[in-house]
Each structure stands twice: as C-alpha cells, then as structure tokens.
Amino acid sequence: MSAAHRFATVNANCLLSSNCSSQILEKRSSATGAMEATAATFGKHIGRWKMDFRSDNIAGISHAIIDEIILANRGSGSSYSEDDQTREVEDTLRAIFECNLRFFPVLTGTAANALALACLTPPYGGIFCSDQAHVYYDECAAPEFFTGGAKLIGLRGTDGRLEATMLDKTVERALQSGVHHSKPTTVSISQATEVGTVYRPDKIEEISEVCKKFGLRLHMDGARFANALTFLGVTPAELTWKAGVDLLCFGGTKNGAFSAESIVVFDGTLAGDLAYRIKRAGHLASKSRFISAQWAAYLRNDLWLRNSEHANAMAARLSTGLSGRAGVKVVHATEANEVFVEVDACTMSLLERSGVQYGIWSRDQGNVLRFVTSFDTKRIDVDNCLAVFQEAESAAI
Ligand SMILES: Cc1ncc(COP(=O)(O)O)c(C=O)c1O
C-alpha cells in the first residue's frame, strides 16, 4: 500500500449525489490516482449520519468522562500536572500495570509518540517500525522533528506486524555499515496495529529479545491499546513491561475520551528528560486536571475495557457478516476494532450510493476499504451496513 493511498474518508452518499457534489472537496493524486473526498459542509449534517465507520475518533465522548470533567470544574485545582487528578491516575495505573510507572498526560497521540521516541532516540538514531505504522506514515515527520533528525526505518511485515527475525537481520546489517547507517537505537510497535491486528505477548518478547541483543529501546504506540488488551485477555503488564516495552503511548481518545493521550514510562530513568521534552513541546497543559479527569473516569469501573470490548464486538460482527460474501474479501484478521475488506467494482458502486461511510485504505490492487467501530457503534448500524453488502451480493447474482 502506498502512502498516498492512506487514506481517504468518503461520504459515499454525497459522492454520487449530483445536488451535493459541489460540496465535495476532491483531490486526485496524479502519481497514484488516490482520491480524497470530504464533504465541505459536513457540520450541518452532524447527528444525521449513521453507518459511520470512518474512524473511532469520529465518535463522541463517554458520559462518565463528561461527568468527570464537570466534576473537575468545581472549584480550583493545581496546574501543570501537579493536580490531584494526575496523581490519582498515576496511582491507578500503577495498580493496573502492577509496577512503579510514571504517567504523563498529553493531548494527542502524535505528541505522545514523537516525544516518547525522542526520549529513546538520539538525533543520529534509527527507529525500526512496521512500514504501515502511524509513526512512519501519518505524523507529518513529528518523530523525526522531535528526535532532532532520527530516521524511521519501515520494515514490511505480515498483517501490519514487525517480525523479530527480519528485525534481527536488518539491525545486524545496519550495524555492519557503521556510521554510514543511522545508529540502531529504537524499535516501535503499534498495539493494536494499523490494520487491526494485535501482537501477542510472546511476539513482543521475541522483538524485545532482539532489542536486548543489540541494546535497543522498545516503544509501543498504544492508541488502541485497550482494544488489543480486551481481544487478547492478558494483563496490561504482560502486554507491556513484562514483555520488554520501555515506554507505552497509551491512548484514550479513540475509545471514549475527548482528548486524553499519555506516555506511560516503565523505565523510571527516562522520566526526568521526558518532563522537559513535554514542556518544551507545549504539551504540559496548564489545566492538566481536565485531561487527567478524563483518564480517571476512563479507568474507573473498567470503562476503558467495556468500551473497547463493545468496539471489538461490533468489528467482529461486521467481519463475520462479511466473510465468505461474493465480491468481498476480508484482508486482515479482525482482532481489534478495524475491518479491512477488498471489494469488487460492483460492491463498490453500490456502497458508494448506500450512505455507508468508511475509509479508502488502498486502491493499488482493487479497492481496500477500512471500517472502524467504536464504543458508540450501534449494532443496528452494523446490521444495516451488512444489509447493503447483502444487496450488492444479490444484485450481482
Ligand atoms: C495507531 C495510531 N497511533 C497514533 C495516532 C495519533 O493520534 P492523534 O491523531 O491523536 O495524533 C493515531 C491516530 O489515528 C493512530 O491510529
């Protein structure tokens, strides 16, 4: 899949409807033919769209999180992460992850990744990651910027995962080149991956063994950590520090928060520098209690796990319903909350007129579409979406 194809979100209904075609901003890349379309006047339709599978960040906010923000709004509170909420969340996370970690709230996943990687990587360092990784494709070179020029090296794996054997060979080769190659210092994995698959703890351990062999640090992009965790049914500790992860970028935004991302540091020696990096990057929020309040509600009563369980269940329902259909092929195992399907021209054409919203992941070889479910996805929308596919199948027969 080429970078230029990642990815256009489409309001398919508007695309073909002549009376609203003027509302569409359309860009066509001459190199790839990739099409990106958005409804310019989307705002006025808010609340009406259903069957919206463009991403998990199109969803709203869990009520418990809104309530907690309102609660944090009573009276005053300390600022710059010195607040009670931030301390409470750090304690809660220590219990959840069973270790003496440090917790740093930030506002976006991109900032979390870039600052975490900067902590682990010198400017001349090399960061090995999957060639599908968000840090590699979708962060406008923020990791390169915040590391002061380190190089991201994308490796082709299977189903979006980095593989230990390939990593081992690549690092070995890089080291043989000496100063002519960026110094291998860091490995980054995404949990769940960008194609909705997950790393089992033993696979993380294999990668971590390679890290130990060459003295590299291991970063985990956990924008969808909860989804991976609930799919695997292991403990947070088993999926992170026990498997050799040094830093986790733990996301909440995609799973019910408003803007709550964080860096969780398992190796305390990294924490001091990180605090300065966060401030310098403008990510030390003065009213930090409102970010941490979101985290507090997110972690309380297993909200984070309940939300991700629901999102995963909706993805599984969609994926199961699509498997084996004529004109549709599920292209990656559906393990977290994303479903990737390759569809034939006939199905594509019907989808485009159906009102279903999804992301176009790739148009390299056929149409590969991405459907993302969230804590707020309704079962009826999944079933209505499946009915559209059923219609396409019937029309083709
Ligand atoms: C795997 C992954 N990591 C990181 C991010 C970055 O999050 P943000 O958009 O908050 O910067 C995303 C966002 O889509 C993502 O999918």
Describe this structure in words.
The protein is of the alpha/beta class and 397 residues long. It has two domains: 151 residues, Aspartate Aminotransferase, domain 1, CATH 3.90.1150.10; 239 residues, 3-Layer(aba) Sandwich (Aspartate Aminotransferase, domain 2). The longest helix has 20 residues. The radius of gyration is 21 Å and the shape is globular. The two termini are 31 Å apart. The N terminus is likely disordered. Bound molecules: pyridoxal-5'-phosphate. The site of pyridoxal-5'-phosphate has 11 residues, from helix 4.
Give the SSE layout.
Layout: E1 8-11, H1 12-16, E2 24-28, E3 35-39, H2 63-72, H3 84-97, E4 102-106, H4 109-120, E5 125-130, H5 134-137, H6 142-147, E6 151-155, H7 164-176, E7 183-190, H8 201-214, E8 217-222, H9 225-232, E9 247-251, E10 261-265, H10 271-280, H11 289-299, H12 303-322, E11 328-330, E12 338-343, H13 345-352, E13 357-362, E14 367-372, H14 379-396
Parallel strand pairs: 5-6, 5-7, 7-8, 8-9
Antiparallel strand pairs: 1-13, 2-3, 4-10, 9-10, 11-12, 12-14, 13-14
The protein binds pyridoxal-5'-phosphate (PLP).
